[in-house]
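Posted in: Protein Modeling Q&A

I'm a second-year student putting together a small comparison for a lab meeting, and my supervisor asked me to include a predicted structure for Carbohydrate sulfotransferase. I've never done this before, so apologies if this is the wrong subforum. The sequence is pasted below exactly as I got it from our records. If anyone can share the structure token output, I'd also love a short note on what stands out.
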Amino acid sequence: VMRRNPFGMDICCRKGSRSPLQELYNPTQLSNTAILHQIRRDQVTDTCRANSVSSRKRRVLTPNDLKHLVVDEDHEMIYCYVPKVACTNWKRVMMVLTGRGKYSDPMEIPANEAHVSSNLKTLNQYSIPEINHRLKNYMKFLFVREPFERLVSAYRNKFTQKYNTSFHKRYGTKIVRRQRKNATQEALRKGDDVKFEEFVAYLIDPHTQREEPFNEHWQTVYSLCHPCHIHYDLVGKYETLEEDSNYILQLAGVGNYLKFPTYAKSTRTTDEMTTEFFQNISSEHQTQLYEVYKLDFLMFNYSVPSYLKLE
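Accepted answer (user: helix_wrangler)
Welcome! Here is the predicted structure, written out as tokens:
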């Protein structure tokens, strides 16, 4: 049976039970939430269309482009994880959903275990026909965050924490070597005192872009999740994390026994904090950095931050 729904998408109906996609596109009662998510989807579609010259340059997606898409076969869902946007907790939830009873409480799963790649199945591990089937039939979602707040959060986590020595060695030393005049031997060896200004200068340096793709912690959502090539059914936002997450769990039919973990993190990066970090960035660098993340701003409806002094 094919049914048209108010959002103009054909959904094939299973007899008896309603799939998450049917409930989303053809809700039993049209809620403000369903309308909100339609507006967010339209925003992505419109931005992709308006920027199609730059966004269509990407050839057909390869399996390597799909390594951020976590698959839950039991509930027919695909989640594209974006680092610094509650991805540890969403991975924990996905482990509960795909663990077939192995875990019941997401917060009992240690954070480092949530990031062990073998604990979750990603879309690049399937054959091409299997990939296409899942992309067509599963409910696909991702979570986004104000791009510069996400960037400051990544910087604080990776470059100001003493324990992140692998990041200091891998990126810190390179950033110091390239961006700091008269760097000390110790700074060149350790790379553990990168300033935010140096980090920004490294990100906008054309050499960086040519050399290798950005690390996933500061890569654009556009490049990690390919929203112009993959039609996401739900765009969750960090700013409304709990409501959006629980709505997804409810659509998946697990909302009665699984809630998204809530926690008050006192250290989380805020808008005020982000404003402060950008105080010392020249307007020229701010403008160049905005260009790098512009599609994320437009696609997910984040306005240009008021603290920016764009040229």
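A couple of things worth pointing out for your meeting: Residues 1-16 have pLDDT under 50 and may be disordered. The longest strand covers residues 139-144.
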